[in-house]
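Example: Gluconate transporter.
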Amino acid sequence: MTTFFIILLCILSLVLLISWAKFNPFLAFLLVSLVAGWFLGIPLNKLPASVQKGIGDTLGSLVVIIGLGAMLGKLVAESGAAQKMTQVLMRIFGKEHLQWALMVTGFIVGIPLYYNVGFVLMVPLIFSVVYQYKLPAVYIGLPMLAALSVTHGFLPPHPSPTALVTQLKANMGLTLLYGIILAIPSIIVAGPLFAKTLKHIRSTPLQTFQPKMIPDEQMPHTANSFLTALLPVLLITITTIIPYITTLSGAPLQIVQFISDPTIVMLLSLLTATFTLGLHTGRSIKAVMDIYGEAIKDVALILLVVAGAGVLKQVFTDSGVSMTIAESVKGWQVHPLVLGWLIAGLIRVCVGSATIAGLTAAGIIGPVIPQMQVNPNLMVLSIGAGSLLFSHVNDSGFWMYKEYFNLSIRDTIRSWSLMETIVSVMGLIGVLIMDFFV
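Written out as structure tokens, the predicted fold is:
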């Protein structure tokens, strides 16, 4: 009982440091982990080793993937490829299906783009449609934001799902495939269907956020835009499927295994984008590298947060808490996937950050996955869904949405917070259904 009290106290301290005391999340993780390790019986002279191992093991396989993913997403945005994809999809779907066009755009663009970058890029495009067709901004825009949110919470190479894959020892390719299957109904329900109830919400987007459009002649071609932005997904999907449809050996097997590694996938995709969206569109190599440099600045704090979560996980492991939790969980009459979703959801509501919620939940659940007899790929998605539960005033995304759409807090909760909750609940339902088949 004392062990569980210490864990609860640590999580509560983490929540208060981040939400009330306004501590940097990395520092909060570090401080709480050190105190937790001391109270859980790790000798003081051993604590620095736990910190170093937690950071090293967590970032070792992630820093390259997250860094390269940030560079690719930034180039997709800066080159005009995202804007080009939006234009094409708008033409395909037509005025009567503008919501669906924006939703599909958000999903496609959201795969390579990190959430904040995708939000800042896509919202002005929503406003351009709103101004052009004189339609309600919330009704038109929420489906796209639902798509961005789902990719952020469910799909690699976004930081939280990628880190969860590593911590829970899941398979990156299978998690991506399951995540895409899960994402489609979640987006449809939380997007176009839910948005039908929001037509009455009045929103006058601020003039400040009217879009600065890239001229058509400066945008890349359609095929170039789509293929380059989606290349990581295509490579991961193809190399995941190949072993199921044919038997390989020798050099071909080695090549497929080499290309299927997430680090190699992201590197090949970025090298391709450097030419197709960079040099091929008239940019100098220096200009492209400057874009990459800015991208790293965008995700530096995310990397530190991921590292901090790794420290807490390692402290729980080294102190023997993992075994204590494992023994206790065996007697719980709660489905493991529901348990992962609940833990992530509670932390999300308290802290506000989906990334912190997902990583903290993984630190608690990860070490006991073998005893739970649950598919780790589905656990990644269950925790990812829980990490999106009910965004409110302690979440930066809540305020970004409120200010961009110029809404009251009540209307922001009515639209944004409920949309995030629907995405979260649909994700849990989908994971439980998939658990019967995989």
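Residues 327 and 371 are 9 Å apart (CA to CA).
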